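Technical note accompanying the year-one report. For the benefit of new consortium partners, we illustrate the data format agreed upon in the data management plan: each record pairs a sequence with a structure-token string. No post-processing was applied to the example shown here.
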Amino acid sequence: MGALRKTSSDTGTTTAVTSLSLMDSGPVILPMNPAQNITAFSPARGLSNGHLQTLLGSFIPSRPTLLGTTQRKLRLPDDDFLVLHDDRPTVWEREDHVVLLLHGLAGCHNSGYMVRTSSKLQAKGIRTFRMDHRGCGAGSQLAKSPYHAGRIDDLDAAIRMIERLCPGSPISVVGYSISGNLVLRYLGEYAQRVPMSVFRAVAVCPPIDLNHCVRALQRSSLGERYDWYFTRSLLQHVVSGPMWRDDVPLALMKRLPRRLYDFDDVFTAPACGYDSAEHYYAMASSKPVISDIRVHTTILASKDDPLVCASPLADVRLPVNVRLHLTDHGGHLGFVGKKGVDPDRRWMDWRVIEWLLE
């Protein structure tokens, strides 16, 4: 499995860390983990603001073209569908490394971070699968039930499908934003039944306490704008596709919700079998189960993330196989760095790849 070779050598020894603090801006290296020389994140000139990092990280053109992608539909037990986009390098061979990428809220397989990371992994001979959650991207007209932060059975089904397509291959999983929470929830709640093929995991900017993160958006005017933007995107997504339902409270509302909490309360929760938004958040948040994770996992978060508050990470008891890398800057899925540090300015992409291939 040549694709699993280390890309850098170990140069030191690990030191036990007895407590975690949000004041730690460097990588948190826990016992039993290999020593690392992680390149610190230095924001590009003029981009030390979390909002700028978030916006420019999303809108700066940097979406390479992926050739030869194979689209694979996965039928779920409830007859809904996921779509996996299979990017296989010509040099990839049976039993080589495979990476499954999962997008964030209102994203899809074609989101910039998904395409960039897949392209960079392809260049290293790694086969990737970019997954469209229910009703997203290529599956926008296929699913009747919405995806959400706790659809761990969907993730399990995707991993099982990749096992069938790539027998003998180690499988790593990367979840961005809401999917970062999904990955952590899956690894913790299913700790006893996660397939042996699951090799490593990375969660980028995960909202591990959904209630806390959604409420935090309402504490500032800019947070309220993000809140409304995502709520409007989700409403448009629901109204224009087969997920619309006449039997949920949203169908009876004269005034559409303007906040994610309200949207989840009148649509996501009742459409997915939860009693309320509070019930959904409690059942889907990964914070209570992170301590049960057994797979080698890295969590990347930023203190100035304007969408996902990092403070819930402060009091999480991390097992020895889970590391937290918390930066001062970076925004939400931004991490646009200085020139000359990496082959391009996308610091997040290169660190994710390092963690997958170490």
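Partners are asked to follow this layout when depositing records. Residues 1-35 have pLDDT under 50 and may be disordered.
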